[in-house]
Amino acid sequence: MRHSTPQESTPCETCPLRKNPAFRPFDAQQLAFVKSFRTGEIAVAAGETVLSQGRASDSIYTVLKGWGYRYKSLDDGRLQILNFIMPGDLIGLQGAVLDEMGHSVNASSDMVLCVFNRRKLWSLFSEFPSLAYDLTWLASREEQLLDEHLVSLGRRSALERIAHVLLLLHDRAAETGAAPEGRMPYPFSQQQLADTLGLSLVHTNKTLRKLTDRGVMTWRDRSFVLTDRDALCEIAKYDYAEKQPRPFI
Amino acid sequence: MRHSTPQESTPCETCPLRKNPAFRPFDAQQLAFVKSFRTGEIAVAAGETVLSQGRASDSIYTVLKGWGYRYKSLDDGRLQILNFIMPGDLIGLQGAVLDEMGHSVNASSDMVLCVFNRRKLWSLFSEFPSLAYDLTWLASREEQLLDEHLVSLGRRSALERIAHVLLLLHDRAAETGAAPEGRMPYPFSQQQLADTLGLSLVHTNKTLRKLTDRGVMTWRDRSFVLTDRDALCEIAKYDYAEKQPRPFI
DNA sequence: CGGGTTCTTGACTAGTTTCAAGCAAAGTGG
DNA sequence: CCACTTTGCTTGAAACTAGTCAAGAACCCG
Predict the structure, then answer these.
(1) Over the stretch B130-181, which tens digit does the pLDDT of each residue have?
(2) C-alpha torsion angle, residues B162, A165, B77, A154 (rounded to 10)
(3) Domain B12-125, CATH
(4) Do B12-125 and B156-236 agree at the fold level?
(5) Topology of domain A149-236, per CATH?
(6) Which of A146, A162, A203, A239 to mutate to test the interface with B (most CBs of B within 10 A)?
(7) Is residue B249 a contact partner of residue B134, using CB atoms and an 8 Å limit?
(8) What angle, 0 to 180 degrees and rounded to 10, lies between the N-to-C axes of helices A190-197 and A158-175?
(9) What's the rounded Cα separation, in Å, for the pair A219 and B76?
């Protein structure tokens, strides 16, 4: 893993996540513990690798800024994106609890990550059950997102799949205030969208065109705008559920 | 949820999982806590529903005997099986931590489940960090299985997918000693296999035939035998990793 | 202003689904 | 105990969705 020079640390007190109403507040004790659990902060440039499949990682990270994606690749070059990673998400837990990372993580935009020492994970469990519970919350939510993704790949048509991820991505970004007015500034390529949905690049492009022809969305500059959300929901059979403030570590 | 009359309880001391070398042992304190956490035991007949999508569940379960599957269904009847459930697996955590179950669980054979009170989950975190850690282990492993499944649905051909699940299913069963001599007695239909792999029943059947014609497996009486494991591994690009004793609750 | 990505489009092909029909095994009721 | 029904498996043919190949256009970066 290569990344840019470590930034000077943002102290936990001014952590961008803590100001965000989408995230639940910390009490003083929890904050004190998290400060001791944390070993620093790193910046990862767009396109670089944060974690590699097959390796054990010494660290766990919480995303402070930027977007990334979690993926698995096969020997012959086929690649499957498992999930997208946004601010507040925790990455590397699998590598900390099991012995080896089953997936890789790449940054799709410049990211800033809060770094935690894997070896102190145990003290989180023994001293801060409330944080351990939050960890489990985070793991359950990830499972729920994967479940939904599995339904898409297994049972939805290309058109439904695309409409569905677009809505999902938008709503996940909107949760943390990152998608104003239906505009989703996720910096990814059509190839990445294809690798997410288990489609070929060409078919993804043609399906995207079908959606823009119907006037429900536009794709430009590696991001998209939902111009007719209702129609998209109709296509994807998607319904939005109001989110409660969520935990993070 | 309807199930048969509650069986008389197997005491934790004679729990079938505890005797099984595939599972890590409990110490006396943990055992005492689990006994208080546990509210009883239920039997679920093959075909019945254990948990329903959309509902909150008051209980969490550990499978003592039998097999089942976790799935999501869409309004129009399409169905996607997310994962299979075997002895030692924990179900219902998502419903306990988040507020609603995003999936359903059905029994594919007669099952016996150990029932825990969702409301006491918090005391598990606060009093037994070692068990909380095990819970996280279990959640991470589920995530890993889902990741692998996602790769299958997204990037593997029908032939690869079938070879891959068959091996996975066999090895998961073998872990707990339930698949002697390559014979996997999983009682499921081809329709269920199709719903697992995101394929149609017809194509699943034809692909299964292709595999039996090549002499690598046989399918009979709703279970299968791996007659040429190496060839299957070759097709699926599958490699087996030795498993350590795993936790359970 | 080149050279490299990324996006776009058309033509052709392959893999998978859908439709349709028949068979076998297991259960059900008279 | 035997018709009758149901459920699961099997097979072929036709239709269609998505993949591959190929080539050009647009965009980005140095």
Answers:
(1) 999 999 999 999 999 999 999 999 999 999 999 999 999 999 999 888 887 7
(2) 0
(3) 2.60.120.10
(4) no
(5) Arc Repressor Mutant, subunit A (1.10.10)
(6) A146
(7) yes
(8) 110
(9) 29
DSSP state of B119: G
Q: Distance between CA atoms of B43 and B64, rounded to whole angstroms?
A: 10
Task: Using a 7 Å cut-off to protein CB atoms, list the covered nucleotides of chain D.
Answer: 7-13, 17-22, 28
Distance to chain B for A197, nearest Cα, Å: 7
Does any CB of chain A come closer than 8 Å to the CB of residue B122? yes
Rounded distance, CA A134 to CA A248, Å? 7
In the sheet where B104-107 sits, what is the strand order?
Answer: B49-51, B104-107, B68-73, B79-85
Q: Are strands A104-107 and A68-73 parallel, antiparallel or unpaired?
A: antiparallel
- Of A97, A19, A86, A28, the closest CA to residue A57 belongs to A97
Place of tokens 């145990």: A122
Neighbours of A247 (CB within 10 A): 19
> Span A12-128: which CATH code?
2.60.120.10
Cβ atoms within 10 Å of A9's Cβ, excluding its own:
11
Give the pLDDT confidence of A125-142 residue by residue, as tens digits: 999 999 999 999 999 999
In the numeric block, the tokens 């891959």 are attached to B164
pLDDT above 90 covers a percentage of chain A that reads 81
| A104 close to A51: Cβ distance less than 8 angstroms | yes
pTM: 0.94
Class of domain B156-236: mainly alpha
Q: A126: which 2 tokens? A: 């023994």
Encoding tokens for residue B50? 């254990």
Residue B116 near residue B42, CB atoms below 8 Å: no
Chain A residues close to B72, C-beta within 8 Å: 147-148, 150-151
Q: Where are the domains of chain A?
A: 12-128, 149-236
Strands (E) across B54-153 are located at 59-65, 68-73, 79-85, 90-91, 104-107, 111-117
A70 burial (CB, 10 Å; 0-12 / 13-18 / 19+) is buried
